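Field reference: sequence -> structure
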Amino acid sequence: MSSDRKINYSLRPSKSIERKMLLDVFKEVCIPSNCDQYQYIGFGASFFSDFKLIHRELSITDMISIEGNSDKLNIKRCEYNKPFSCIVIRPGYSYQVLNKLPWKKKSIVWLDYDKSLQNFMFQDIETCCHKAKPWSFLVLSLRRDFEQTEKKSFQDEFGDKVPDYLTPEYLESKKSHILIREMIINVIEDVIVNDYSTKKEEDRLIFKQIFNFTYKDDAPMYTFGGIFILKSQENEFNKLKFHSYNFVTNDVEPVCISYPIITSMEYHRMTQLLPSTEENFVINSEIDFVPKAHKENYFNTYKYYPSYLESRDL
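Structure field:
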C-alpha cells in the first residue's frame, strides 16, 4: 500500500521541512536561465506535494510521476489530482519505468520510497547513474528500519553489497543509516567508475553528497542524496552558496530533522526573535518557558517550518 493511503503526504511536518531544504539547494543550480534544461522525476502519488513545489519554485515543466499502483482506477485518480498539465503519469514500478524514460535533459530525481531497503532500489540507483548528466541530482528516501533483523538474513538478501564490517548493531535504527549510506555510495561509485573508465580524468563523472537526513513523522526515515558533476567542475561546485547551509553535509553522521512541538503563539514570538545566534536565541528570557530542545529544533528549521491552517469552509 502506498503512503498516500495511510497519511496525507502534504501534512507530514518533518517531510515538509525536508522538502523545502532540498528545494533551497536545487534553486541554486536550477536557475531561471536553465530551468528548461531540467526534468523532474518522482513519485507523485495522489497529492503531488513535491511536484507542486518544484514547478512553482523552479519553473520546471518536464515532470514525470512514476506510479507503482497500476490499477486503472488508481491511475485515473492520479490523473484527476495532478495539479499541472505538464505532469506525465507513468504507471509501473520504478525499476520497470526508469530505464524507459527519456534522459536527454539534466534531471532532478527524488526516489521517495515508503519501504525499507530492497534490492530493486539499487537497480534504480544504477539506472539513474547510467543516465545522469552533469549537474543532475539524485535523492533517495526510505525507511531506515530493515525487514531483515539478523546478520545472516541481511547478507543473504543483499550479497556482495554488504560491507565487511557488518555487525548486528548496524541493523538497528540507531546505526542503520550508516550502513544504508555506504551501500548506496558503493553502488553509485561502481557504476560511474565503470562507465567513465576510458575518459580523461577531468571528463569523468563524480558524485558529491549533499543531503544526509534522518527524521520521523510516522516511520523512521532516511534520506541520502547529492549531485553528479564532472571532475573538471569541482571548483565551480565548491563555490556554490549552499555549502554554508547548516543542513548540507558530506559527513557520515546525518542531520536529524526534528519538528518542534510548539503552540501558534510560541511560533510567532520565536519567529520575531530571529535571525539571531543560536546561543542568544536559546537563552532569551522571553521564551524561557519553551523547552530547550524545541527552541534548538526551531532555530535550525524556522525558515522551513510548515504552517497549517484549518478551514471550515473549503
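Note: The domain at 13-257 is CATH 3.40.50.150 (Rossmann fold).
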